[in-house]
């Protein structure tokens, strides 16, 4: 399929590179492709960024049949534009699509669409250290119909947003509230899919945690409220008594691409990662025994986010004196080094756009 | 607040009353009201039905922060227009809003908005037996922003759809597939809220059940996969050994307004309803002992939907020889009688629009 390109005749003013924040500015163009039952995905096009016209009865607004992805394009010091494992995001699109009964998209074509769009808006990619171009592919159900059933029409859309450095003033470990009241997802549900429902269900817990001075919540499993799942928009890793542990993927947590990369990276450095269930009691017991050496989150937004404190049922524990530890540092430096082109990409993780 | 009215200059052709189906035709007007942080809900207006212009980064499309309701307006044989307990729907809006961190809406104002809109499109209310005007209030988060947090802006919208009779060829009991793989909702999650996430999570199970010849799935609790929750878009009732039982509201099922009305109605007729947890084993044991007299669903769409067959792990049981039972019949006739104005409304459930 050929992607048609219609350029804007009215380019926007670009925002100040030092004040980008996250997800609030959007570039001049977007990618759109339609799906119609019987016809398949068709009419891929890059067009000026503009409001979508959606019928008020449009199914996504009523039944949440929608999925999304998040990845970034980085400008290297040599001026190259790199993507980090974009095929993994497109594979996850299809895993999410299967769960939400949305038709699959060809992985290679999806990556091509991302690249073409990034090329068109290449001038929007910021180059201050730590900045990048956030890429948000998403799919929405568009039938104008109120019955509960999968839609027969969809739109696959990609939008781009220049984003600021996550750590402007150095890496500050976060304070995490262990949630024992609200549940994000449960086995048999939607937890492993990157779908709107999981974020809707997280809002209330997040607001309450913020209120109490915590950055994010750590979710426990929905069945026993015992096993550690993930944090906000990050997977979690622990170093306990020298062993690196991350919760195994059991259907209720998102299989993060940074998680996968962290596991592969550590393995290659001779540091094995154990993927298994780990309970919050075990974490607290390890801390009590002086064996909880590190805790950190992994995700596209921050790459690595060290965790300095947990609060579980009003019991607070501090990890590694509230400082980033050596494993988190090493992973952070390697992944961001590869993304920024400053380190050799021995894994073949990056794809060059330009 | 005053509701401004802008009438369409281009009214649509009305659909054939005998071929309305459900949720596929929409009237000439819609109600919209905006929310902005600091300003509250404002600018309530009735305007011509038209597409919404939504920024592609609009939060509802990414994080599913949205809720909805469903109720009906009925035309009586005397030509009056009645609503059925609309204040209960608006109360449920606020319960859903609280869970989704959406600002509340004044219940009386919400009911007034529904009435005003129905009046403007009164000519759209069909009058063939069993037909009605379906009313869909909904709220969507509209910030053009990709960070995960509650939106600062929202739209409350009401649209109307003339719908056909649910039972055109008499009441036919449905076949229900007991779902033991997928989970709709779990305690601590969103189950009790009427929010898009719960419907997104139901689609795959529903499609698979349809494939195997079943109308809908019966959800079991997400923790033990043991206790009966609800069916598709209906709550469930059983008559076992003379006792009427419906699952108690424990946070994971929708508190249906038809469920509430059924309980109140039966109570007034001297038939108590026990609200308690009931396991699928208990249901099957009751059937084996010849004591499962009736099973039926309750919901706005069909009012009562008798269940003729269950399939749980490939074990099928037939209820009441696949026919509607006396309790389901009585509830159906009373509620539809009150809605259509043919029976006296001893409960004060209806509100007159015109
Ligand atoms: C719920 C959740 N968990 C984990 C992650 C981390 O995934 P990734 O490393 O692919 O960004 C994300 C996404 O960013 C997320 O939304
Ligand atoms: C999941 C679910 N359960 C139950 C019901 C029944 O609720 P009500 O009787 O208020 O229509 C509905 C809605 O119609 C529903 O969507």
Give a written overview of the molecule.
2 copies of one chain form a homodimer. With 354 residues, chain A is an alpha+beta fold. Chain A folds into 2 domains: 4-163, D-amino Acid Aminotransferase, Chain A, domain 1 (2-Layer Sandwich); 174-340, D-amino Acid Aminotransferase, Chain A, domain 2. In chain A, 23% of the residues lie in helices and 31% in strands. Chain A contains 8 helices and 19 strands. The first copy, chain A, has helices spanning 59-63, 86-100, 107-120, 196-200, 203-211, 257-268, 280-288, 326-339, and strands at 4-5, 29-36, 40-48, 52-54, 66-68, 71-75, 81-84, 132-141, 153-163, 174-179, 216-220, 228-231, 235-240, 243-246, 273-275, 292-299, 303-312, 315-318, 350-352. In chain A, the strands form 2 sheets. In chain A, strands 1, 2, 3, 5, 6, 7, 8, 9 and 19 form a 9-stranded mixed β-sheet that branches. In chain A, strands 10, 11, 12, 13, 14, 15, 16, 17 and 18 form a 9-stranded mixed β-sheet that branches. In chain A, helix 2 (86-100) packs across helix 3 (107-120). The longest helix of chain A has 15 residues, at 86-100. The first copy, chain A, is globular. The mean pLDDT of chain A is 97. Chains A and B meet through strand 4, helix 1, strand 8, strand 9 and helix 4 of A and strand 4, helix 1, strand 8, strand 9 and helix 4 of B. Strand 4 (52-54) of chain A pairs antiparallel with strand 4 (52-54) of chain B. Bound molecules: pyridoxal-5'-phosphate (2 copies). One pyridoxal-5'-phosphate is lined by residues 70, 230, 233-235, 254, 256-259, 298-300 of chain B. Chains A, B: One of its GO terms (molecular function) is L-leucine-2-oxoglutarate transaminase activity. Chains A, B: Belongs to the class-IV pyridoxal-phosphate-dependent aminotransferase family. Chains A, B: Keywords: Amino-acid biosynthesis, Aminotransferase, Branched-chain amino acid biosynthesis, Pyridoxal phosphate, Transferase. Chains A, B: Its EC number is 2.6.1.42. Chains A, B: Its cofactor is pyridoxal 5'-phosphate.
């Amino acid at each position: 399929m050929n992607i048609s390109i219609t350029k804007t005749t009215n380019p926007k003013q670009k925002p100040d590179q030092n004040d980008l924040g996250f997800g609030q500015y959007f570039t001049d163009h977007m990618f759109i492709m339609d799906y119609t039952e019987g016809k398949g995905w068709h009419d891929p096009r890059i067009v000026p960024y503009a409001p979508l016209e959606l019928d008020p009865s449009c199914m996504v607004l009523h039944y949440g049949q929608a999925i999304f992805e998040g990845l970034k394009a980085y400008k290297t010091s040599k001026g190259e534009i790199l993507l980090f494992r974009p095929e993994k995001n497109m594979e996850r699109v299809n895993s999410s699509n299967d769960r939400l009964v949305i038709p699959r998209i060809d992985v290679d074509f999806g990556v091509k669409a991302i690249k073409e769009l990034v090329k068109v808006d290449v001038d929007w990619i910021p180059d201050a250290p730590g900045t990048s171009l956030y890429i948000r592919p998403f799919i929405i159900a568009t039938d104008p119909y109120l019955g509960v059933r999968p839609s027969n029409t969809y739109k696959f859309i990609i939008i781009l947003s220049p984003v600021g450095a996550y750590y402007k003033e150095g890496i500050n470990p976060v304070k995490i509230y262990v949630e024992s009241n609200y549940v994000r997802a449960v086995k048999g549900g939607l937890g492993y899919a990157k779908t709107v429902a999981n974020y809707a269900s997280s809002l209330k817990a997040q607001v309450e945690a913020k209120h109490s001075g915590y950055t994010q919540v750590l979710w426990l499993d929905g069945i026993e409220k015992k096993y550690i799942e993930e944090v906000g928009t990050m997977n979690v890793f622990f170093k306990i008594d020298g062993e690196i542990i991350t919760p195994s993927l059991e259907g209720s947590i998102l299989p993060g691409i940074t998680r996968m990369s962290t596991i592969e990276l550590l393995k290659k450095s001779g540091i094995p990662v154990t993927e298994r269930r780990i309970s919050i009691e075990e974490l607290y017991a390890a801390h009590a025994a002086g064996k909880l050496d590190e805790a950190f989150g992994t995700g596209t937004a921050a790459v690595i986010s060290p965790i300095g404190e947990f609060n579980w049922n009003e019991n607070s524990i501090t990890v590694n004196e509230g400082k980033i530890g050596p494993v988190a540092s090493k992973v952070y430096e390697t992944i961001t080094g590869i993304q920024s082109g400053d380190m050799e990409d021995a894994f073949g993780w990056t794809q060059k756009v330009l």
